[in-house]
Amino acid sequence: MEHLQWFWGYAKKRVPKLAAGLVISLCVSMLGMVSPYVSGKIVGSIQDGTWEATLFASLAVIVGAAFARAVLRYIMLRVFERASQDLVLEMRNDTYAWIHRQNFSFFDSNRVGDIMARMTGDLDAIRHFVAYVIYGSVENLVIFIAAITLMFIVSWQLALLMLLTAPVIFASGFRQAKEIKPAFFQIREKFSRLNTVCEENIGGNRVVKAFTKEDQEIAKFTEANNEFYNSHINANSIWVKHLPILEFCAGILNVFLLCGGGILCALGRLQLWQLVAVNGYLWAVSNPLRQMGFLINDTQNFFASVDKIFGMVRKKIYIETPEDAAKPERLIGKVEFEQVSFKYDRHGKITELDNISFVAEPGETIGIVGATGAGKSTLVSLISRFYDTSSGRVLVDGKDVREYDLQALRRNIAMASQDVFLFSDTVEGNIAYGDPEAPVEMVEDSARDACAHSFILEMEDGYDSIVGERGVGLSGGQKQRLSLARAFAADPAILILDDTTSAVDMETEHEMQKALKRRSSKCTTFIIAHRISSVKNASKILFMENGRIAEQGTHEELLALKGRYYGMFVSQYGDFAKKVG
Ligand code: ADP
After folding, report:
1. Crossing angle of helices 51-101/272-313, nearest 10°?
2. Nearest to residue 383, comparing CAs of 525, 560, 532?
């Protein structure tokens, strides 16, 4: 029920519009009843010989009703379409904004393809329901009841005959609704999977080509596509079973009418005009029966989609701005870890960070080294509150990061990570992403410091060159330099560089180090690196091992320890290091 309450939250704002649409829809249905009744009356007047007095007025009523029906139907369709589009517009905006408020763990556990499926196919099923199924159901129900009522007025015997098939019809409709529900859930699932396969394969097309795995990926897609196809065929095979029952019941009404009506006419219990009138209402009884199967399908499809979207948006957002949050414009940049432990999976057994404590004074540079998987990236992600600690505290300027307004905190922290993500935008747009109003000089300075200026100028349109999706068209080192420039341009109080120079050559790295030295006095800098050369000038170096700080100190202090850091140094500088050490 909760998922329907969520839907109702959006639908209730459109109640006036939907109610107006339904009233118009009822008028349209009622106007459809006029023609058969008047036609019957015309036949009666011809029989009585009184047609001269009434014929033209009767015809005028039929034409007038048809005209009014056409106009009202047009208005009704516009009203429902507008209401449904408004509803889905708001829902889609809300869902998108909600996704952006989600923390990292949501993206760790939800595939992009699934999210895309919710935002497209599922929302469209909801739109279709609001635009067509609501009025379609009400209209058909009203037409059916009105036609039966009018039949009762004209001839109760014929009306009863028409109702003979009702129990069969309702039993069949009920069973169809029950059986089709899981089939539609399956369609939504398969649609998500198809989206995911498509998104991953196209997003990863370079890897696919590099490993010549096109055939394998095409086969994977074909399989997902076949499963999607089969889910539709399965749903179809369920509901088409019921279609012949409804179709047969709708068709047999004609036979009931001709036999029953003919006998009653022959017995003199029914006049010919009454038979003509009831015959005119036949469509109004049989048509809703034919429509019923489709309306049941669309309704179940709607339920499945609401359930899927709600299943996603109901998830609790763990990381949010607290009430009375501190909202500083500019942080000073002191960072402290107080006995911090962290697990990615709240219920899991593995502890990714174990009892981490250290202090970074404002303006200091902290180097973080250690083997892959040691927990370096995890550690820095806690400063921006991408995740919350499992125990212990991360303090920035003496205050727990959980006490800050999230945006204010993150605005003060810039990050350049090893997986560079660039937007399809100009080079300037990408560098000034954190502050689109940043003056051109600042953008250029940042690019210069990141050793990106010269290669940007070599590009055809310089800073106005468009970077392909995710930076396609640039080398790994160029992308890293743009990402570093983007972090510089944000002018942060805390700068985090996560393996940012891994893809640049030694000479460029040396240049970047010099610029970084100039810049880093203005902010607290964290440098995660594999090369000793990247961290040796740091105020403090943390050597991480299995989620713990195994050693910490300056380059000299750590060399003097002759421990793990020393071992790393030797492995990078060889015998020469031993002599120096
Ligand atoms: P490093 O930066 O030192 O290479 P990470 O901090 O990336 O190490 O990873 C530390 C550990 O946390 C690894 O065991 C890794 O598998 C795990 N890990 C990293 N990111 C996630 C994630 N998003 N969800 C679950 N586990 C993760």
Report:
1. 10
2. 525
Q: Which domains does the chain have, with CATH numbers?
A: 2-313 (1.20.1560.10), 326-412+493-506+522-581 (3.40.50.300), 420-491 (3.40.50.300)
Q: What single-letter amino acid sits at 427? A: V
User: Which pLDDT score, from 0 to 100, does residue 581 have?
Assistant: 46
Q: Residue 479 and residue 470: Cα distance in Å, rounded?
A: 9
Query: Which residues are CB-contacts of 132 (< 8 A; sequence separation ≥ 6)?
Result: 80, 298
How far apart are alpha carbons 355 and 549 in whole angstroms? 8
Which residue from 342, 369, 378 has its CB within 8 A of the most atoms of ligand 1, so it is best to mutate?
A: 378
Ligand 1, closest atom to CA 105? 23
User: How far is the C-alpha of 140 from the C-alpha of 160, rounded, in Å?
Assistant: 19
Which residues have C-beta within 8 Å of that of residue 543, sequence separation ≥ 6? 369, 370, 549, 550, 551, 552, 558, 563, 564, 565, 568
Answer whether 344 contacts ligand 1 (Cβ < 6 A). Answer: yes
What phi and psi, each to the nearest 5 degrees, are found at residue 551?
Answer: -145, 145
Over residues 112-138, the pLDDT tens digits come to 888 888 888 899 999 999 988 988 998
Would you say the CB of residue 139 lies under 6 angstroms from ligand 1? Answer: no
Q: Quote the tokens at residue 166.
A: 């009702």
Residue 417 Cβ inside 6 Å of ligand 1? The answer reads no
Chain segment 347-406, per-residue pLDDT in tens: 677 778 989 999 999 989 999 998 888 899 999 999 999 999 989 999 999 999 999 999
Which residues contact residue 369 at a Cβ distance below 8 angstroms, ignoring those fewer than 6 apart? 376, 528, 529, 530, 532, 535, 541, 542, 543, 544, 565, 568
Task: Band the pLDDT of 469: cuts 50, 70, 90.
Answer: low
3-state secondary structure of 432: coil
Residue found by looking up tokens 């516009």 in the block: 78
pTM of the shown model? 0.73
